[in-house]
Amino acid sequence: MNAKQITSRRNFMDKAFGAGVFGLNKALFPSWMPRLAFRDNTAPGDVLIVVFLRGGMDGLNAVVPFGEGAYYYDRRPTLAVPEPGKGENAAIDLNGFFGLNPLLRPLKEIYDAGALTVVHATGSIDPSRSHFEAMEYMEKGTPGDKSRLSGWLNRHLISAAWQNNSPFRAVGLGASVQGSLRGDYDAMSLQSIADHHLNGRWDQIAHMKRAIASLYQIDQPVNPLEATAAGVYKTVDLLASMTEAEYKPENGVEYSDHEFSKALNQIAQLIKAEVGLEVACVDLDGWDTHENQEGQFAYNLGELGRGLSAFYTDMGADRMKNVTVVTMSEFGRRVEENASRGTDHGHGNCMFIMGGGATGSVYADWRGLAPDALDEGDVAITTDYRDVLSEILTKRVLNPAVDQVFPDYSATIHDILKAR
Amino acid sequence: MDRRQFFKTTTASLFALGAVSQADRVLADQIAERLQTDWANPVRHAESVDPALHVLNRITWGARSEDRAKIAEMGIESYIDWQLNADAIPDPTVEQVLADYPVLNDPFAEVALQAEEDYGAVYTAKQWDRIARAVYSERQLYEVLVEFWTDHFNVPIGDLLTQKFIEDRDLIRPNALGSFRELLLASASSPAMMRYLNQASSDKEFPNENYAREVMELHTLGVTGGYTEADVKALARILTGWTVNEYANRMKFDSDMHDSDEKVLLGRTFPAGRGVEEGLEALDLLASHPATARYISSKLCRKFIQDQPPASIVDSTAQVFTDTEGSIRAVVKHILMSAEFAASEGMKFRRPFEFYVAVLRALRPALKWTFNENMLWVTELLGQMPYRWEPPNGYPDVAGAWISASLLLIRWNFALTFPVANEGWYGDEVRIDWSKLSDGRPMSTLRHILDRAAELIVPGKLTEAHYAAIQDAIAYDGLGFDDPIPEDQFEARLTMVIGLLFASPGFQWK
């Protein structure tokens, strides 16, 4: 029994915050149009969705190097995923050496369709094993250097050669914007499309809306609170029109109730509504499995697989040709399991890339798991994650200015993906 | 200027932004060293600052007229001293409102049993305990500090409901106004903390570094405090054997798990052959380290003064911390009596939980309610349900972490809809008796209502422009500002005024 089972929070939300109860005057909002084009939206490339797996995902058990034999199995007596063919919890073979954790089974279909690529032994090269630090370095795109105040995605938005003044150009799903999106460019945070409106008595709402606009000087904001208020107003009106019609995912998909799946659902809606979305960030927390890894890790992997595959199916293979989803985590976990049937903070990890440029393969400059190949007991990083992101930006998103996105770094393109 | 232009002038503040999720554990104080600026425009609405009101705004959860009368009677310094001597302040109202939750006083075994049977009831009781004390306690400053230390030594509830329940009552609260060293020790030996950060399962064969790292990074020295990865490993080894007796919910030291070899921690050699005492010595070393004095002082200055406190006050506070060997009372008093504090009116943004409590305190005389699930879940929607921050660094304490489009919209919505509770939107258990707020003065026109409500809710914080904006809105449908309000419209107009004041910028800054 956990906290979420105490009461149905959604019941309350429907009662107090649902549009129906308050009798919002629908005449105040334009009826929903399937496409709201912004004249200056000229982004030429893929929509980029960045999924951050927070806590340090155990890449070795997500995409299993079963081909390593004893080097993997001896070090993980209770946690290792069995080789393909060895029972119902066995890894799903991907290329004869690596296998997919069976909890990610929904992704196998996408892999076979050629729309999923795995990169292994990758990550942020800074040796920090502190969540706080490692996330900061990874999201800033400057491992080892904290001096920058912007995230890599924000620098991408600023360095891109095209214009797009939609307030939905960059969206961080959640209560506030992820570190990679922070910076001079003003990205939007969004929790849910349906809840994004002002509430109150139906006969007062228009007046209250006017009053708050005036109280916060949204035409001339002079501090961050007022500037945020102005942003709220811009988006409320637009999203109101989207919620008028109830969204139904396509191709028979049902998104799960988990925050991660719901966030991907929001993104699918925003993409289909063509509101000018270019970049979205989503988080999936809870990967820090120091103890009794099996339960928590299984839960998380299940959600990851379900969420990504629901999104893929809802979007459809055609739309997904113009979308790139990439996952990353601040570090991997140690090869050797610990005394608590868990794993401690490690280094090298895997990344998933789903969508247009993927090739249905596993890319890794794999050194193996023999003791002398490891980085102090951890998987070494042989492909810098900035190389992977640079390739996505140049070949898929079509922003070649990666030297600005990842300053003081010279990216190598490893031809992991197909170009647009 | 638009938001983008605004941030160009204060780009420095950007990575001071924390985030309300495990998403971003960037601790603003790590950045504080490198930042020079705070918000470019501190939101100061009052023409002149009432120093007594400013103190109340910072050390209470919302200044009521009783509080203003009390501080006027006692004088500022005596009032602060009175609040710092929290044990001596009787708290009958709290006892009353918690009377229906006897589990709050039960021993561990009993609480655990009840949680087995009905997790939700125990969870709700603990949440109500936190909310009720913030709203109703006379020991307001003490409750502010309990929240501060709860964030500082963060342990999320969840799988550790019962342990955290007990930890809050028996370990954090008794030490919240005492010595930092005692508080650190209480946290280090807390079953909740030891389970949360995996200390309880750390042994000499596989030392678990999680707690060792966080106790230095987050609880004492700070991430720039000068410890190395080798120190983390050494401390992890020193603390092996610190584990938990689950049945009694107490710390126990298991010498079989303990690594008694020699270690070097922060340059000090810990000779071989010792047991629990070397862990105690290590914690002592951390508590009395100059980096700790600095780090704790900077966090307290952030809490009470402003997000990026001037170096001068952080320095002098660190000195007081060192001189008094970490006396929380002395340190807090020093901060509150400082010139830097006096100059900081309007510069702290109300976090979601304190916003929620401030709404309830402002309406307190009129509130006729029993705590229900709706009132519980509002705190989650607003973004700051107690005990629900997952990573060890605790809810962030900088404006940037809480100013986002989503959270602002939800805050406005609570502000506008809670006053209309009599319509049943927050459940049948929540009603507001508006007659209890009139205090004998006439309330027959919109002007009366706005003046009285502004005095109650945003004293000294409503500019002429704000007043005009609200005045304009509430006089809808041709009702004049000085016309008598028709009986059947009274409550609707009143709730609109109150809602707009709760939503106004002045209510968000303190």
List keywords for this structure.
heterodimer, A: 420 residues, alpha/beta, 9-stranded mixed β-sheet, 3-stranded antiparallel β-sheet, 12 helices, globular, disordered N terminus, B: 510 residues, mainly alpha, two-stranded antiparallel ribbon, 27 helices, 52% helix
Question: Would you kindly provide a written description of the structure presented here, covering whatever features stand out?
Answer:
The complex is a heterodimer of chains A (420) and B (510). Chain A has 420 residues and is of the alpha/beta class. Chain A has twelve helices and twelve strands. Chain A has helices spanning 9-17, 59-62, 70-73, 105-112, 131-140, 152-159, 205-215, 224-243, 259-272, 293-320, 385-397, 402-405; strands spanning 47-53, 63-64, 92-93, 99-100, 116-123, 170-173, 188-190, 279-284, 323-329, 349-355, 361-364, 383-384. In chain A, helix 4 (105-112) packs parallel to helix 10 (293-320) and helix 9 (259-272) packs parallel to helix 10. Chain A is globular and about 70 Å long. Chain B is globular and about 85 Å long. Mean pLDDT of chain B is 89; it is low at 1-42. With 510 residues, chain B is mainly alpha-helical. Chain B has helices at residues 3-9, 28-32, 51-59, 65-74, 76-84, 92-97, 108-117, 119-136, 140-152, 161-172, 180-188, 191-196, 210-219, 229-239, 276-287, 290-304, 311-323, 328-336, 339-342, 352-362, 373-382, 399-402, 405-417, 446-457, 464-474, 490-503, 505-508, and strands at residues 242-245, 250-253, 263-265, 268-270, 367-369, 430-432. Chain B has a two-stranded antiparallel sheet.
